[in-house]
Amino acid sequence: MDLIIATFIEDNIVPKFNYWIYVILMMIGLYAMITKNNLMKKLIGMGIFQTAIILFYVSIGVKDTAGIPIISHHGSEHHQGATVHSESGPSSEEVSPVKVKNNTIDKDKYANPLPHVLMLTAIVVGVSTLGLALAISQKIFKSFETLEEDEILNKLRPGSHD
Amino acid sequence: MTEHFPVLILLVPLFGALIVVLLGKERPNQCWMTSLISLGISSIISIFTVVAVLAGNKFQTIRYRMGGWPESNGYEVGIELRVDILAALVVFAVTFVGFVNTIYSKTRAEAEVQDKVSFFYALIQLLIVGLCGIVMTNDAFNLYVLIEITSLTSYALIAMGNRRAALSSFNYVIMGTIGASFYLLGVGYLYIKTGTLNIDDIRMVLGNNNLWEHQSIVVAFIFIMLGVWTKMAFFPLHGWLPNAYAYAPSMTGTFMAPLMTKVMVYVMIRVMVWLFGYEFVYSDQHVWGELVIWMSVIAIVAGSLLALARTDIKKMLTYLIVAEVGYMVGGAWLGNVTGQAGAFYHILSDAAMTFCLFIAASIIVLRVGDCRVNAFDNLFRKMPLTMIGFTVGALSMIGLPPTCGFFSKWYLISGGIEAGQWEYVCALIFSSLVNAVIFFRIFERAYFGQITEAKEDFVPSDSDANPETAIKEVPWSMLFPLFIASGSVLLVGIMNRTLFEWIQTALKMMNT
Amino acid sequence: MKVFGLIAVLIVGVLLLSATKDFPDWRDKDSPANEGPVSSFYIEKTEDLTKVPNMVTAVLADYRGYDTMFETIVIFIAGIGIIAVLRNFDEPHSSSIQRENNDEGGGLLARFTCSLILPFIQIFSLYVVAHGHHSPGGGFQGGVMLGASYILLALAFGLSKAKERFSERRTMIFAAVGIFIYVGWGVLCLLFGKEFLDYSVLNSILPGDAKWARSHSMLVVEIGVAFTVTAIMFSMYSNLSTRGRLSKGL
């Protein structure tokens, strides 16, 4: 039995563990959004949910040998003349791998830029939604004096005064 | 110049919104005039777009590449707009409804939002920009950003009302975010498997590599559908709709009720027919065809019965919207082109009907000061013109010719018979009967006076009616939009043959 | 209710995880997304066609510039929406007496430190905006930092002092001008005859050839984004912390 579980984990979870972690995080956020009574806790759940989606997307673009998606010219023939700079700076130029060679760019040395771009947009959208939701909850608090959903629904019931 | 029309439809209200914000809160009349002009120009350009796309019955598609980036290895590198006859019709409907509503909002703006008139008009124009953008885009992630634009403006517009509106808006925020995030997850799954975000290219990659049976594509489809269903208030994910639209300030209710859910139905049809394709969605291996039709039957029945039980006018109309969404989802999932075309025609007709009914209901609630069915007592005598407009919309909901409601039900029923889904046909007929009961009860009240006491308690609405003064008609600036709305209900009905043929041709072209 | 929520969440989670069995592995460089023609085009051709080494900025501001325009509009909507929902334009009644006490800000230490640091923060944020072509940065990042510097000013010196520099009217003008720059630049391309946001036609008014025109236009567009984000960040803070009254700060 243990062997079956171990092979299952080995084959299905370990090589794709990023998807598993982020989906579990998403579900935690979704649970908070649906079941919690306090409006602030719902918003925190919303934040967790959206952040997990962002991390999920960014993890798609990771490559084994890749660095950041910015083409750097350190160590290429462009900077051979500027020896003053290379001597005074740290010696990382010689250590880092040559990424631009003979004017062709090695695709495997750069992470995929598209998920990063999409998630910049998603972060901004998440921040805007959070800001608007906080403003709405401030307005609710001003009118109802509480942020617990069951107390608010009690106040709205026709027995109490509107 | 005609190839730039799609972008111009978006840019004009965008500039209008920026100008309105710069005008500031001290000049509400100029803000109204600016938004009226910008939405009017946008409607005119959208009429030209419809004409350009028709091109003398040749049905060309305008494709517009943002940034002008050409294809690389057959894949789109930038974002593309794609306007065919279906998109052009919906864009015209959106901009036209926005324009007519702006005329209606002139008298109510100061009273309902006090000194935030400039922000109201800016948000309205940005809502129209978002809706038009959703209809025209051909990029899956761009669709998500535009859905969020429309959602954020809706949250803000609804929350500008009283405190019940703020609570309903918060509920809408939570459910709307879940829906949009599900859509984003579905698009992410598709991106992982295909590597591109353009809708045409995704379809091409899925077909070339025969990825149709992979579990991730099925899950992606399910999540995109769940997200879109939450946004269009398909039962049982409809929880946010009745409160949000009923308690919103009356001007925003008339803007959002005809448009938001219908554009989401358009997105659903687009995803089903163009992104995933006929063979995938309707294939026998997937059990969801029958399941969704049963869900839509439940939606229609539940929506109609819940509407029957309410005595608050606006709540009743919102539950009727839930039932109408059930019609459209069921029609689209029937599996034949007649059903899809019927659902699409119902988008246009339901926009007109809901628009007409919501304006009439807002006028009545405003004038009488009571938002329950009591408000209709003896109204045929006191406000005859308003009641004529309301009657046209009500007859269309019931489904009597020559209003558009009759023809859309006709097409949906014939699609249901053709597909052999008798439960759907029965649900449609049942819903027509329930609508008839609801509206004839109202007509009885309006003719003969009060019959029974309303069951719900009096909820103060945002009207400024004075109970001492007699109820008389509203000024022409409010009646005029109502008559345009009723006229469009009749016009969409009379033109049903032409429109249906266009829609059917376009869908047949998509399905091949 | 909680049980229903738990069951629903578990169903959704299982559904999401069931699809992962045919996903590419973590760090796989041959996955369809990483190997696909779109990403390869971005990595290989960007520096050549647009003269911008930072691929993320190039994709954000040029290839998918339409999307970024809508992203800026989203944050603009958030700012306007918060004002529309929360803002109370009535004159405050009794806060004038409390204003002198509560508006002091953060105390002597905070004021002194901030007066030393703030100029550097602002210059660094302008650097981040301008250097987005060569290092991680760009309009959004720089704009947020610049907005944060004004928030720091409000925290340390009191909201009224920050409002002297960045009044409500000025934030609205800045926000609208930012989007005007972005959309106006795209309309300029339209007027020159090509598609919306096609920057290559602007080489007649910008120095350099068509490729350098793209690089410069990206900078212009990022500046527009930075204006809007700065203004909206400060407007969101001032409205949310004062509950719409803009009278007393935190």
Question: Which features does this protein show?
Answer:
heterotrimer, A: 162 residues, mainly alpha, Helix Hairpins, two-stranded antiparallel ribbon, 64% helix, flat, B: 512 residues, 21 helices, 74% helix, 2% strand, globular
Brief sketch in words of this structure:
The complex is a heterotrimer of chains A (162), B (512) and C (250). Chain B is 74% helix and 2% strand. Chain B is mainly alpha-helical and 512 residues long.
In words, what does this structure look like?
The complex is a heterotrimer of chains A (162), B (512) and C (250). With 162 residues, chain A is mainly alpha-helical. Chain A has a domain of 98 residues: Helix Hairpins (Orthogonal Bundle). Helix content of chain A is 64%, strand content 2%. Chain A has a two-stranded antiparallel sheet. In chain A, a hairpin with a 2-residue loop joins β1 and β2. In chain A, α2 runs antiparallel to α3 and α3 packs antiparallel against α6. Chain A is flat and about 70 Å long. With 512 residues, chain B is an all-alpha fold. Chain B has two domains: 137 residues; 373 residues, no CATH class. Helices cover 74% and strands 2% of the residues of chain B. Chain B has a two-stranded antiparallel ribbon. In chain B, α5 runs antiparallel to α6 and α6 packs antiparallel against α11. Chain B is globular. Chain B starts with a helix and ends with a helix. By secondary structure, chain C is mostly helical. Chain C has a domain of 168 residues. Helices cover 72% and strands 0% of the residues of chain C. Chain C is built from eleven helices and no strands. In chain C, α7 runs antiparallel to α8 and α10 packs antiparallel against α11. Chain C is globular and about 60 Å long. At the A-C interface, α2, β2 and α6 of A face α1, α3, α4, α5 and α11 of C.
